[in-house]
Input
Amino acid sequence: MIHTNPSTENSRNVKETDIKEIPKIISKSSLAQSKWEKVCIKDRVELIYSLTKILKREEETITRVITQDMGKPITQSRNEVKRTIRMLEYFCKKTPKLIKKEKHSWNEQTVYNPKGIVAVISPWNYPFETPLNSAIPALLCGNSVILKPSEYCPSTGRLIQKFFDRLNLPKNIVSTIFGGKKQGESLTKQKLDMISFTGSTHTGKKIVRQSSDNIPKILLELGGLDPAIVLKDVSVESVARKIVALNSMNSGQACCAIKRVYVESEIYGSFVENSIKESKKLKLGDPLSNVDMGPLSSQSQIKKIETMLQNAKKKGADILTGGKKLKRKGFYFPHTVLTKVDQDMLLMNEEPFGPILPIVKVKNWKEAVYLSNNTKYGLTASVWTKNRKLGKKICQMLGAGIVSVNTHGSGALASPWGGIKQSGTGLLSFKGVVRSFTEPKLVRLG
Ligand code: NAD
Output
């Protein structure tokens, strides 16, 4: 398969896994798992924990590889690596307690056995953090792991496999299948015990169908169309600055980025003005330098954004900043603010996954709540107001997994994460994540 560096458009051929090899990878993974589950939890933790040393030593290499694979600004890639290390340390510390057998009475207890083979299928937008977020707890619980990194981030995927190969783990306990849809589809049709999938809602649905013959346990972390509601009492300048930043992180390619904004009519004009000012300030350029936004990850992302903007324009939207790919090498698309958008437009129904910020005028917060909830998605949402009591009340009414007042997105390291409706199979706290990689069994004495 071909991989293209999004900032230079230099393409190269990268090796993908032959479909015929996939059943053999599954057999080897199963054999490795039967050995690994016999290793006591203390030794498993020790072995997996040794990965932190490698990651700390290789932090700069990983950071650059992420950026070269998918165009994320280098400082954001570095943060991704640092977060991954913290997550790894956290899981190693907490897992033994979380999967210890639980005594209910003198004659009943629950034991937490491994599931078996866990396939981890991941997207390109956080190509290092996302697969490891599932792979680490899965391994600690005694499972084997088969990674299927995104075809847009093959080098990050190779690096992860290389690091695991350096640990003193049973052979084939972690394996990687390289490639795209074809390989993903073939993998999900194998006899797996569990699939942890992060990616689009469209692919999530396919995975459920493809794997239905074997009924593996499936965790789904899917897309979103995350709303922010801005009430008339806010300090407009500061909130517009924060919202543009939360919309443009990772060039708008974050599952929990703000993707639409509903503003009360009294401050609408001033909010739009301030958003335009902030949008124009964003520095777009070479992701290896100090910029706010790098290129989009691929030509197909550019196409998707262009299609959505054309559709919006045709239906009457005003494009106030950006709107067109830059005339230079690389998939550079500037931050784009739009107004006069409505529910009929593609970008208000499907996740755009790019640096575009549609702003909608609403009569009051009740209308904003109605419009926010009028979607198949339910990942994150936020309310911006000085009235925290009202903010909390509105949060209760929003149909999303993570709702916030005066901030947006994921919580602290150990906080729950996930979406509802077609954004995923529900909230999982980091504690919950660990146990979800086990097969709980009730053991009774008569
Ligand atoms: P995608 O669904 O196109 O691909 C994700 C992965 O699935 C890739 O590895 C891909 O090769 C594989 N795949 C594709 N078709 C498959 C099939 N038929 N069977 C099995 N595997 C298949 O998503 P993407 O474009 O890589 O990532 C962006 C999406 O991920 C966005 O929708 C974003 O919101 C979502 N995302 C969600 C979260 C979350 O936690 N909810 C986090 C990050 C990204």
Notes: The two ends are 59 Å apart (CA to CA). The longest strand covers residues 108-114.
